[in-house]
Amino acid sequence: MNLRRAEEQDLEALVAFNQAMAEETEGKKLDQQVLTNGVRGLLQHPEYGFYLVAEQQGKLLGSLAVTFEWSDWRNGVFWWIQSVYVSHEARRQGIYSGLYSRVQEMAEQQGNVCGFRLYVEKENEIAQQTYEKLGMQECQYYMYESKA
């Protein structure tokens, strides 16, 4: 399995993964043009973050996005793991574990990453178990949002 940073050529697959993930986890149908522009925006602006993909024999099996949050309390950067998706036929085969290990390696090389964060739906117990097996733990914060 090849784990690499996504490139412009991966745009269509990343959009499809994001659309599938939104439908599967939240029952949402995302606006195709907005989603495409959003994925392209992350691919074209490495200062915002990056996508990492798992590829085997030229086929993308899974992906995740990493975005950055500066922490003044820690004088470092949290890497937020987002848009996690593994294709149905590749699940339970270590794809996410491989992607997460690669993210950890990349963070260590960068040197200023103070931790990893992600959010997960309260009902998604399978994902929660996966994250816990990889050493992540539930934190003390609730998440709130509002539109700008």
Give a quick set of tags describing it:
five-stranded mixed β-sheet
Structure notes:
It contains 4 helices and 5 strands, in the order E-H-H-E-E-E-H-E-H. The chain has 148 residues and is of the alpha+beta class. Helix content is 36%, strand content 28%. The protein starts with a strand and ends in a 15-residue tail after the last helix. Strands 1-2-3-4-5 form a 5-stranded mixed beta sheet. It is globular and about 40 Å long. The model has no long low-confidence stretch (mean pLDDT 94). Helix 1 packs across helix 2 (32-44).
Order of helices and strands: EHHEEEHEH
Output mean pLDDT: 94
Helix/sheet category? alpha+beta
Report helical residue fraction: 25-40%
Overall number of strands = 5
Distance between the termini: 40 Å
- What's the Cα radius of gyration? 15 Å
What's the multimeric state?
A: single chain
Largest sheet geometry: 5 strands, mixed
Contiguous runs where pLDDT drops below 50 for at least 5 residues: none
Number of helices: 4
Shape: globular
Strand content: 25-35%
Biggest sheet: strands side by side, in what order? Answer: 1-2-3-4-5
